[in-house]
Amino acid sequence: MKITISEVNKHVGEEVTIGAWLANKRSSGKIAFLQLRDGTGFMQGVVVKAEVGEDVFQLAKSTTQESSLYVTGVVREDERSPFGYELTVTNVELIHAAVDYPITPKEHGTEFLMDHRHLWLRSKRQHAVMKVRNEIIRATYEFFNENGFTKIDPPILTGSAPEGTTELFHTKYFDEDAYLSQSGQLYMEAAAMALGKVFSFGPTFRAEKSKTRRHLIEFWMIEPEMAFCEFEDNLQVQENYVSHVVQSVLKNCSLELNTLGRDLSKLENIKAPFPRITYDDALKFLHEKGFDDIQWGDDFGAPHETAIAESYDKPVFITHYPTSLKPFYMQPDPNREDVVLCADLIAPEGYGEIIGGSERIHDNDLLQKRVKEHELDPETYKWYLELRKYGSVPHSGFGLGLERTVAWISGVEHVRETIPFPRLLNRLYP
């Protein structure tokens, strides 16, 4: 019977065959331990010389790292194994012998591993990160589907920019200028006016020359948009969504989180509601902590966000940023025109902003005024302005960066490990 490693719990005591690669091995004179992987998981196969033919034992001992095999054996429960099971091998069939596999069990430098990303993905750690990423994606669809959202796919090629063109990749769309999308938000607002509650999930691009551990050139965004939704409603959706995702990963990826050495107690605490602090109060806090260089109207950088987050054991909302710091479409606070009804959600443990969101301007005159103030072309944004002309309503939305969220939940240091093939400032290969 041919099965996968993920299915062995259903076949204890039975003889099965697993198609696998040899991740690693060790052997003595009379026993060989094969570390097997098949994409669904990792499992140890034990080959005892006295229990198999000489040819099988010699093949097990001589097979090289990352060679592909069909391994037959009896599934046994094993409390010593993190996986909980091992395979008592009865036969090994070589499919393909790998020669001089470049990523050996020794330490390798980051650049070397990135050059071999197509192979590095096979490692136990990278496998665990990708499984956590997959669970976050699964839980995302689950949350929004269960809460009445419709998935909408905004275009990747756009003729305008939601937040200015300085960080966009420019291209030609036949005889017109076009840009790779940095956000689907404006299109999602149009979709919300048609379908009420919508979300998108797709690639976005920023031509930002950043080399920090939080930045990618190409990354994935989850962008919900909700009609008849005001600022406070928006925050509640965000904290419920993030709580759902974290608890789903805890429930379904415990083995992977243990492989990554993640402190589970820090994730178990991530449940709504989340604490909130205004920009003004955050600024006072930073001054008390010795950050004298930052003044009202300045944006917070990574050290500032980290200092604020360290005061909480959950993600924290920083709300009501100065109007001058934020994009043209954000709704001003009705009590203070110098700040907007927005929030950034800062993850704990130094992982920085994972969500940016706001209530959107729904007044046509005010939005037209903002377009002029930001020196944007009214003709380019004509369709967007028309959303306020024909049945405008209060509406809100947000964007969650998938890779930063994966990094935080996984506990990995750099976002380059959170996407299968990262696009970085100086990396377009492989």
Provide a brief overview of the structure.
The chain is built from 13 helices and 19 strands.
Q: How would you explain this protein's 3D organization?
A:
- The chain has 2 domains: 2-96, Beta Barrel (OB fold (Dihydrolipoamide Acetyltransferase, E2P)), CATH 2.40.50; 118-417, BirA Bifunctional Protein, domain 2 (2-Layer Sandwich).
- The mean pLDDT is 96.
- The chain has helices at residues 54-62, 110-115, 117-120, 124-146, 185-195, 231-252, 254-259, 264-268, 279-288, 302-309, 364-373, 382-386, 402-410, and strands at residues 2-3, 15-27, 31-37, 42-48, 68-77, 85-96, 150-151, 157-158, 170-173, 176-180, 197-205, 218-227, 276-278, 316-319, 332-333, 336-340, 342-347, 352-360, 395-401.
- With 430 residues, the protein is α+β, with helices and mostly antiparallel strands.
- The longest helix has 23 residues, at 124-146.
- The chain is elongated and about 85 Å long.
CATH architecture of the largest domain: 2-Layer Sandwich
Q: How much of the polypeptide forms β-strand, as a percent range?
A: 25-35%
Return the CATH class of the largest domain: Alpha Beta
Name the CATH homologous superfamily of the largest domain.
Bira Bifunctional Protein, Domain 2
Please describe the biggest sheet, giving its number of strands, its sense, and whether it closes into a barrel: 8 strands, mixed
Q: What is the helix tally?
A: 13
Fraction in helix: 25-40%
Radius of gyration: 26 Å
EC number: 6.1.1.22
Subunit structure: Homodimer.
Subcellular location: Cytoplasm
Family: Belongs to the class-II aminoacyl-tRNA synthetase family.
